[in-house]
Design a protein that fits this description.
By secondary structure, the chain is mainly alpha-helical. It contains 15 helices and no strands. It folds into two domains: 215 residues, MetI-like fold (Orthogonal Bundle), CATH 1.10.3720.10; 68 residues, no CATH class. Helix content is 76%, strand content 0%. Helix 7 runs antiparallel to helix 8. The radius of gyration is 24 Å and the shape is globular. The protein starts with 17 loop residues before the first helix and ends with a helix.
């Protein structure tokens, strides 16, 4: 029993394969409770409230064949990414202006504090932008923006004075102080804040996709599933949103490791001293790289087809993403830029 005492350590850390084991135990426990509550001809919870797990699993097949599930998922995902892009473009410049300069802080700090409690709903956005993609993306971006802007200002205030004193002692200019201290310190913490926003962003999407018949997971939840009384489909869609959220969180964490490696150096150095990298970690890393490069190659072929039609009249990217395709294009361009940048950097070092 002494070897299991770490499970009850205050702020203890879950390490290695134990995280997968504990995750499996947690999911197994929830599934067990779900089965107990819904089993039998007269379940403890009526099927109209909580359907049986088997019916929810079967509902995925119905959504795939009857409701064009993949296209609706890609539609929602592109909307989600577009909201993030716009929110970051709005909040980062404004946040640094207000957080760094007394002129802007004195003029707008109280307004920013008031914005935190501001929620005008989607109706003004319908008046401004209509009921289609532009309105939905701007509404989602505004919801994320309301959270990010005061957070950026708070992160600026949290920058430790020791770093500022050091660069000032070295004779750094204001611009050098910004680029070497403020910007990296704030952005490295902001990446964690962005990860927290995953749940909030999908909540906004579920609400806003009920307007206009453009598809999306929110449209399926409010539309076909609700009208047909298919509670099993609704649960399947909610589970799908959770899975997408988990995958999105892992992507953000991967990007965080690549963009801000200093946050993980102490842990990785300690791990390298105590144990060698496992075969599983090596395999997963290799598979991840293969998937990333293969996805980039396939995207390039599909992007060429969008312009030239060399593979026929059907254009998959436009079919799956519609007028939100610019978000996907921007994402892949950024990935390509990072890959080329890292390749050039390694060549220079060599």
């Amino acid at each position: 029993m002494a070897s299991l005492a770490w499970l009850f350590d205050l702020r203890g850390e879950v390490k290695g394969k134990s995280s997968y084991l504990l995750l499996g135990l947690g999911l197994g426990f929830l599934l067990f409770i779900w089965v107990i509550l819904t089993m039998g001809a007269q379940p403890l919870v009526p099927s109209g409230i909580l359907p049986q797990p088997v019916k929810v699993v079967n509902a995925f097949g119905d959504l795939w064949y009857d409701n064009d599930l993949l296209r609706n998922v890609t539609t929602s995902y592109a909307l989600n990414l577009g909201g993030y892009v716009k929110a970051l473009l709005w909040s980062i410049p404004l946040g640094f202006l207000i957080g760094l300069f007394p002129l802007f802080r004195g003029s707008f700090q109280h307004i920013v504090n008031a914005l935190v409690a501001f929620n005008c709903g989607h109706k003004p956005f319908i008046v401004w932008f209509g009921i289609y993609t532009e309105m939905k993306m701007n509404f989602l971006a505004f919801g994320i923006f309301l959270y990010l802007l005061p957070t950026i200002i708070q992160r600026i205030d949290e920058v430790e004075d020791v770093y500022l004193t050091t660069v000032y002692t070295l004779g750094a200019s204001k611009w050098q102080t910004f680029t070497s201290v403020y910007f990296p310190a704030v952005m490295s913490k902001l990446s964690d804040d962005i990860r927290v926003l995953t749940a909030i962003s999908w909540t906004y999407i579920i609400v806003i996709e009920n307007i206009g018949s453009e598809g999306g997971i929110g449209f399926l939840l409010h539309g076909p599933s609700a009208r047909q009384g298919r509670v099993d489909k609704m649960f399947a869609l909610l589970i799908l949103i959770m899975l997408i959220g988990v995958a999105q969180d892992r992507v953000f964490k991967y990007l965080d490791r690549k963009l801000f490696p200093h946050k993980y150096q102490l842990k990785e150095n300690a791990a390298s001293k105590s144990q060698t990298v496992s075969l599983l970690s090596d395999t997963l890393g290799f598979i991840g790289n293969v998937v990333a490069y293969a996805s980039l190659f396939i995207y390039m072929l599909l992007a060429i087809n969008e312009v030239t039609g060399i593979f026929g009249h059907f254009r998959p990217l436009h079919y799956f993403f519609g007028d939100r395709l610019w978000v996907i294009n921007l994402g892949f361009l950024l990935v390509a830029f990072v890959i080329v940048y890292r390749w050039i950097k390694n060549k220079i070092k060599a």
